[in-house]
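Help wanted!
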Amino acid sequence: MATIPGLVLSNKQTIPNAVALRYKQLGIWNSYSWEEYYNEVAILVDAYKNLSVSKGTIVAVYGNNIPKLIFSIAAVQTLGGIVALIHPESTESELTTILNSSKAEVLIAEDQQQVDTFLKVESECNINTVVYLDGRGLSSYENTKLNSYDDLVSKSVNSNIDSQIQSISDNDIAFYLFDEHENKIYKVSHDPIIRNSSKICDLNKLSNKDSIVSYLPLSISTNLLFTYITSLVSGMSFNLPESNQTIEKDLQEIGPTILYAPSFVFKHIISSISYRIESASESNYQRYMWHYSKLMQIYDREVSGNKSLIDTIWKAWIMLTTFAPAKNVFGLTKIKHAFVSDGVLSKVNFNFFHAIGVEIQHSFGQAVSCGCISVQPDHSVSSENVGAPMSGAEVKINDNSEVYFKTDCLGEDVDGGENSEDGWFNSGYVGSIDESGNLIINGRTEDIITMKSGKKFSPESVENLISCSPFIKSTVIVGDNQDSNSAIIVIDPNSVNSWADRKNIRYTGYAELAGKDEVRNLIMDHIKCVNETLEAELKVKKFVILHRTLIMNAGEVSKTMEVMRKNISKNLSDVFSAIENNESNIKVNDIDQLSYELKVNDI
Amino acid sequence: MSDILKVENVTLTFGGVKAITDISFNVKEGEICAVIGPNGAGKSSMLNVINGVYLPQIGTVTYDGVERRSINPRDAAIAGMARTFQNIALFQGMTVLENIMTGRNLFMKSSWLEQGLNIGRARTEEKVNRLAVEKVIKFLQIESIRKTPVSKLPYGLQKRVELGRALVAEPKILLLDEPMAGMNLEEKADMSCFILEINKEQGITTVMIEHDMGVVMDISDHVVVLDYGKKIGDGTPSEVMSNQDVIDAYLGVSH
Amino acid sequence: MDWVYLIEVLVGGLMSGVMYSLVAIGFVLIYKSSGIFNFAQGTMLLFASLTFVKMTENGIDFWTSLFIAAGIMVIFGIATERYVIRPLANQDLLALFMATVGLATFQEGFSQFVWDSDVHGLQMSKFLDIGLLDPAPIFMSDHIPWLDILIPKFDIFASLVAGSLIVVLAFFFQKTKTGLSLRAVSDDHMAAMAVGIPLQTVWAVVWAVTGVIALVAGLLWAERVSVSFTLIEAVMKALPVILIGGLTSIPGAIVGGLVIGVGEKLGEIYLADVFGGQGIELWFAYFMALIFLIFRPQGMFGEKLIERV
Amino acid sequence: MIYRETGNFVTNYFKDREIFPLKFDKIIVILGLLILYLYVPTTSEYTLSAHVIPILAVGLATVGLNILTGLTGQLSLGTAGFMCVGAFSTYNLMLRMPEALMSLPVALLFSGIFAGLVGIIFGLPAIRIKGFYLLVSTLAAQYFVWWFFNSYAWFLNYESSGVVAIPPKMYDYWGLGNLLGVDMQGYPARYVLALTVCLALTYFAKNLLRSNTGRNFMSVRDRDIAASVMGISVPRTKLLAFFVSCFYCGVAGGIYSFLYIGNVDLMIYEIDRSFTILFMLIIGGLGSISGSWLGAIFVYEFPIVFTWIGDTIFKGAFNTAVVENVSNMVYGIFIIALLIREPGGFAALWATTKQKLRMWPYPH
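Answered by r_m:
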């Protein structure tokens, strides 16, 4: 009976009073127990039935995690419907693509923003019913397709849905998941994704005593697996913050035991730790830095098994006086497992989190593999790999270093396209397997740079090294068909701002700050450091500091903040060509009719 | 629609200096009425006369069917007028939440003794009114600064909080004194949305002083133009735009 | 009714009014220039006169003592501006008032700690024996022959001093550059800054001048009530005066002083019986000021506030 | 650093406005109460009579002044006058009312109300008069009240010396002492009564502060025009502030005379005391109830500590005058320094420290 609604039902029967969903609204935390969760779903089943959602109906769900949206998923699936998840920030074109290739008929939109985006592309797709969850600003809309969630609910009755839940099969399609990199939609049935989640729960002994905060949209397939499905499988509480601006505070208030996030979120945490300590008093800063290096030394000895008693005492002291409070400030005190997807943390950051007791566990997975193929076990000490394949999954590397996998938890391409050879799927990534069987991911296959010398490498490995500075938000390596590598650097506004304040550097905005000589030197020093660890050919010889950040709406970064090389090279073609032509000044005609000049810095 | 507010022949002087001379205009129920004019045209004074902060020497203000020579600000509030100020008049020693809570004071019926002992009505009132305040906080999207002292907020947010404080009183008519002054484009867009939404969704009549002609033309139903304390234009935005006096006195000068 | 007695009382009231005015002028100067309600006025009186007395008691002659004491008050004024007022420049007026209360407390402790807490007599007649006129009678009460009323000649002397002080101040404000900038500052801080008037210098000058005024007022008061911490209470006496006069006006301070001086005397004579107790002058001035302010909340010559919103 | 706020979330609005939202704070408060009620009464009579009870009395008056000046922004120099009303009312109520009706707690309550009414009378001008001009009204109150009780000997039961000792029977509490077998005139019993009254009134003040009344007070302080535009009745709010504030001062006066010095003496309610209490308020921090108590403790204890240092370390080098003068200098410098460095006084320092402890090791 392993279906999503089935899990709701079984949780209602086994742990009816445990908190299923907790959300902050109007300043206070409200919660639904599993029993209440079930009742909400039951009403919605009636509501969506009235909208003629039935077996096989494809319902697009377009919005951020809010309780209404969460309940809708289970309700639609109880009726046998299929949920196509769409990122709330999706642009018109992405929305059209997903709606059309999924053949969705019903759209559940969060609020005015999503409804507006939909209305712009209304004529291009076959949506016949739209349900909006938050009616604010929509009362004057006259489109007859629009239905208010609240109206629907008020017209519906709470009935027993046990038999309906039992009637759906675990082989029914549950979700349509969009893979941004491949621009494809995968069908995922109830069974594989739930089984995949059970593996994670069993491996890490997750139970209904745990809690997790979900602040990313469920359309990110790894997020769907690690937060939503996992909370259903383990029965743990699923917590939703009040708004995007209050995440940090809400995380602290809840103090979850499980954390899941794509790597960029952890990078963000590191960067805010860094910029906040930068603005501390000198003595505090020095002591912090000293404690930090001391802690890292002790951690190294701990890993190599040479930890002495004095180290233990030292560590206890350092934790007590510096890092336990630091964890408290960021709401990390109770974290038992912190799962990372979509990239890995740099060694320094990985070690730091482990040293302060936040167990970072890298994972690797995509929509087609139901979000996860491999995950690191607890107390892993290597920052490079993403763990060994889970039971039921296998990984092999071909001659071109491309990663192929096999798994018993698999999705299918909606368009019926087949990219497997004898059951082996091309992951689209290059990588290797280390001696203990752990998978190491180097980057996406299509990103591989071939230098003039014929040297091939994955730019992500270099980019990650450079981006591990708290001052750098993202890096794009330019090197295709070149003698040497160049880097486009995007500085992190928060940490560079506070660094500049500390150094008494005056500036009026991001662009001016990015153009400062001091900032250039700061970045230059860092790149020089990184260069020392790189082999000769890969060393970065030139860099440009961009006068803006990369824009998600323009497709420059993915929803999980990974660099989308193709689109960047399109938008910043001036920069790319200038670097390739060895010009030292670039006139950039940027998107949104912006134009400005950039300087290429030689190292 | 009937007129909710009629200003008739109002003249206001300060120590012999005329701030407003013989101004009359009507505001219909449910509309957004913009009062525009160059600096020193008497716009703020006009608002101050309407809600009783200033007492006009001549003229009457008819609000909600009651004609008055003067009204005191408190009675105006009780009658359903709420307003914001040109130079933000938030209570600087309080947090955002407390500031907006003061907007609910007319809904608090418990005595100070009950409040001091924290019993009975005092407790439930705090809860009920907090809920109303939280709805406004959500509406204005200021959840993240709920407990921040207003003195630490940037200007644009302070304006937003002040709007919240006026809105939470559930007024019939909202008087906004330059709600968008000193804001950047994005903040202005947000503020315009809020004002429109308040007007359209909650049906609150709004009288607004504003300098930004773009905003005025976009969101108002009715425009009154003042210049040197006199009314020189009154009508729909397009009528006013084509009025020669207005073009000469105001648009011509400032553009 | 005994008219002579009444006139005698009136004149006596006017005279003590002059004394109040002397304290009040210092108050007004500071309030006008910086909006600060200077509670330390009384302790400045004490400090100045105590410094002077201790020097003369140690054998330094009158004029030297006077100059040194004046010098100390100037330094003190400048130091006050530098270390108390300037760091608090952006605080609200209540905080500044509190700071002057702190200053007063400090000064009270400081002057008595450096010198002593004893009560010192001060006979100026002794010092003013400079040969111009016979000093002794000046400081004795005498009948003015043509009116046959009793007037302490010292009071006349005090009035003359007060009068000349006002003339000097008027000259200072009308004719000197610093004086003119001070008037500009009192009208509008921001505007004064904008035209390049150095606010801090102006304030320092004001505090220094106030220090000197405090010395003069202190000596005259001391002649009447001796040099001891009771001088601090002079400030309490001056409060209703400046409030009636309206905080920002020097003429107001003088008129206010006279009104209170006369009113107090009249009250003592005609109202004390009604209240069945002695010593109504303790509170009578405050009630007068209170009643006055209820009808005119900004004081007699104070600027009417139009509250801009 | 000590605070662990992770996992502390509120599920309703009552919880969100708790005075002590954190578990850690709650534990400290309970421990504190246990110490105050169980340990402190067993300390020496000297500690109670020379330190604890007087601090309770003046601290309560500081809380009262805080309501008027700190919360409502109405400057007052009449605190001692209102305390005086309280002390004399308590005495006269005990003296003249039938014993069956009056007991000290009841008398304190009514004297508070008397003082409050006197406060309203002197607060009336505040409706017209603003800012520093209002000083004249509170000073009038101070001087008038003092003169009044000085002039009419009836209030002192015609005691010619100007001081009247409180007869032991006034500590009778309707025979409660005999019933319990406790010496109700003894300092431990006095202390417990004073403490209970102070805690109750502090709680009351704190509740006012976080309710509509408190917000009305502060709105009148911060922007009275905006307050009236919000529908707040400014005159009513000011008068209420005068009443509540003077109620506190009145009760404090009663405690001072009855539970601390044991006699009614006009001399202790001179204007100096108004200033002392103002210092306590400033040093403690305007607008903060806990700050008022911190300020009271500091200002009261400083001369004592200073004398003690003089006696023990410098072998009695400081005489009373030196102690007084140095104390004054220190308060003066302290007030100025505090206003420059931290205008919010001890309370703000404490709040910053607490915030630092929460955000440690990061800047707040």
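OP: Thanks! One thing I noticed: The CA atoms of residues 233 and 240 of chain B lie 6 Å apart.
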